[in-house]
Amino acid sequence: MIETLLCRLENFQPLADEDRRVLQQALTPPVRMDRGEDVISEGERPEHVHLMIDGWACRYKLLADGQRHIMAYLMPGDLCDIHITLLNRMDHSIGILTRAHVAGIPRQALDHIYAHHPELTRALFWSTLVDEATLREWLVNEGHRPADQRLAHLFCELLVRARVAGLTENHCMELPLTQDELSDAMGLSTVHTNRVLQKLRREGLLTLRGRTLSVHDWQGLTEFADFDPLYLHLERSERMSDLLGGI
Amino acid sequence: MIETLLCRLENFQPLADEDRRVLQQALTPPVRMDRGEDVISEGERPEHVHLMIDGWACRYKLLADGQRHIMAYLMPGDLCDIHITLLNRMDHSIGILTRAHVAGIPRQALDHIYAHHPELTRALFWSTLVDEATLREWLVNEGHRPADQRLAHLFCELLVRARVAGLTENHCMELPLTQDELSDAMGLSTVHTNRVLQKLRREGLLTLRGRTLSVHDWQGLTEFADFDPLYLHLERSERMSDLLGGI
DNA sequence: CGATCTGTTGATGCTCATCAAATCCAGTGG
DNA sequence: CCACTGGATTTGATGAGCATCAACAGATCG
């Protein structure tokens, strides 16, 4: 799954073999984690950067009233928290959503990369900038789009990201999220999310059942959601071209 | 106003005189801009990083239906778009909100900094991580908080940021935003924003009139808004201590 | 096989958008 | 100095979108 990460980083620019090796060797062995556990919690001082090997996680914050807001989904190949070497304390938590394996890059190894591998450093920096761009799009999504478009837009994004990570078959992907977890990310109630999902299904755009997302009308979905993948900055990905062609 | 930037960067760690000089000398002379102009537009390939000398700007995207969503406010001392050196094309625009002066750091100068001034580079990287953290908080704000808390939270943030930039007097600051511009950031209609502002005023929390924000009950406001400034990562700022003490 | 989590359905009401019009204000030109 | 103008703020009325509460059906799992 380091392959997935490398593959993603190469959306910025091709990596030297040396850089690939350095990154690979920096990784600690994957740790098994279960749904409900935190990779790291708000307020903690992190010592590792974490990499999702398999399984899904999310960034989230808890509000004063106990509600959880999910700010990002992390799928296999995603780095969880590069920030962390530079920020003192986590301002949010990272929680596991499925059975998962998580590897780490020790702070020390990362410092070494920063000091001696400028190209790799830039690639990692690039990757956080993409995360930031994604965050901006989510902000637009929650701020301005009604519930149906909002969910549709999320599914577009997830399908593209999964595609680039090699996690799709045709227009289907494993999506191990409950409607509750979707709701906490979209700022909707579970009930409303449920009704919107039914509507998207009725309209022949997609179905979500048994942890599998199937997109039936990709073109229709992207148009409905006003989805423009520019913000994912994946222009270089070969796996993207057919999808993008369809947009 | 480079002072403000340096002062902000030193929230990460004190800068060497050498680094301060390098940054100062990298700046191009400020250019005068007017409300409505774009510093840079979506899709463009940027050649400078921009620094707000005076006046305000915002990051925004235009949606398919013509609505504008504001994703960040930029005040004097804020860098607009460091990303830019690494991302190919802007996935959003930066628009001027008041008469303003904007300086630039040429891409070339920035590359030089990246290559030869690791500490300064880290400080700049840190600064984008804070931007990202702010984005996450905005996401929570729009996703989960009702309109009154949402606006209150925004005002808390703006006051703290202005305070650190030396732009406040007591609990007042110049806030040159129309209710329309506030609405576009909060995902509310102008009408509703207006009513919420009246409510916050009636409750004695703050008044916003004639481009001036006056917070009358800081403690009450932060409690009402569920505001925790951790995400701004300003622990080192001396100017913050009195405000934070009040939280 | 019950216990628990997830998904589904119905009913009710609040928050907020929308439309429309009135007022206020700063700037501009006669 | 005043009339004019266009933008910003304010007010009222109406209705849509979505939250909330409650209950039930299905799935999953030890």
Automatic annotation (TrEMBL), chains A, B:
Keywords carried by this UniProt record: DNA-binding, Transcription, Transcription regulation
Species the sequence originates in: Kushneria sinocarnis
Domain Cyclic nucleotide-binding: 11-55
Xref: InterPro entries: cNMP-bd_dom (IPR000595), cNMP-bd_dom_sf (IPR018490), Env_Response_Regulators (IPR050397), HTH_CRP (IPR012318), RmlC-like_jellyroll (IPR014710), WH-like_DNA-bd_sf (IPR036388), WH_DNA-bd_sf (IPR036390)
Any one cellular-component term (Gene Ontology): cytosol
Keyword Transcription listed: yes
CDD domains: CAP_ED
Designated name of the protein: CRP-like cAMP-binding protein
GO molecular function: DNA binding; DNA-binding transcription factor activity
Domain HTH crp-type positions: 145-219
One matching Pfam family: cNMP_binding
